[in-house]
DNA sequence: CAACGTTGTGTACCCTCGTACACATGGGAT
DNA sequence: ATCCCATGTGTACGAGGGTACACAACGTTG
């Protein structure tokens, strides 16, 4: 089966190392040499598998995105359940992601935001954004889904930029406003932890 | 006084150059040498005025933040007017900022987001965030203000990351949900001109 | 007026980076 | 078995980076 000296595991190890490096020193600290050292492979190996750093970044971002997807898979079962409170589910999920692996979340965001300046990263960033929107759009309309993603992005950003703690109740409250906005007044079927009618503001 | 050779204008020119450099090549392309070249000053001059690059970044971010403040000053007169539709005002303002000077907006965001990894930048980023929140909080409660800022951040991020156009109607719509959410379960009038009573929760 | 120290400038050093390229290895075709 | 080339590795080179430090200019002070 083909693989004579071809070693896919090596490539994977380099990506893992790249993610660790970015996590530890940021994208600014990423270089062929630093990943090579971290992955314990020769310099030539990194340049062989990834002609340019952008290629490596793309692979890293792609893999990092799996982090959130994994959280969704593990904790997001109720997401698809039409009976569940979508805003509460999302708030809980975001919390699980943020608190469960904060460095990982920071890393994913750094990679994600890097797309701002690196055209090579844009497609994969956009793709991820689209996927999440799609996921949420199964429970509402597309406009609401997009706005929800934007809001989550903003909330996470504030948390990460200020280094503060994630406030799930707050997130739930404001997410509910965006999500329930279009069909306002209609009480939600499931009470959950909070009142279906949000009457108090923080 | 007595500053015959003391030249504050020189320092300012370096900051301006740094902003131009970041705008053109991103933070990754920023170095003492590149700013020196851009500002047409000797290399030693940049290191003299800014011991470290972070210092320069801080100054640049601080000045870049003025960009949005300026837009607020010029186009945000109605912001303070309690009779105006806050969501509409913010949507308009954001559009003016985004479309009026897109490269500038990109640059400000890059600087702003850089705080994620550079502790030195966090205080000034947080400060700016706080200022905007404060500004909006004059028209609503703090929780709503914070959420509004988060949403605007997220929307801008989506626009900038995808390179797409800013949709003011969309922004208005979702901003209204967050802003008007707390006080009423009543459906918003689709005609956005008829501004429903804003008003604070509490 | 002259010496001195603060302020500003120019240069040189050493480091790390990406890239190029010569060299090793081993499976598959003949 | 032998040759070939995709696969993988090690090293050297030029570019550009931050920093250190010697030097120039000028205000101050005795």
UniProtKB/TrEMBL annotation, chains A, B:
Residues 8-68 form the HTH tetR-type domain. The keyword DNA-binding applies. Coiled coil: none annotated. Pfam families: TetR_C_31 (PF17940), TetR_N (PF00440). Transmembrane segments: none annotated. Residues 181-202 are annotated as: Disordered. This is TetR family transcriptional regulator. Residues 31-50 bind DNA. InterPro entries: Homeodomain-like_sf, HTH-type_TetR-like_transc_reg, HTH_TetR, Tet_transcr_reg_TetR-rel_C_sf, TetR_C_31. Keywords: DNA-binding. The lineage of its organism: Bacteria, Bacillati, Actinomycetota, Actinomycetes, Kitasatosporales. PANTHER family: HTH-TYPE TRANSCRIPTIONAL REGULATOR RUTR, TRANSCRIPTIONAL REGULATORY PROTEIN (PROBABLY DEOR-FAMILY)-RELATED.
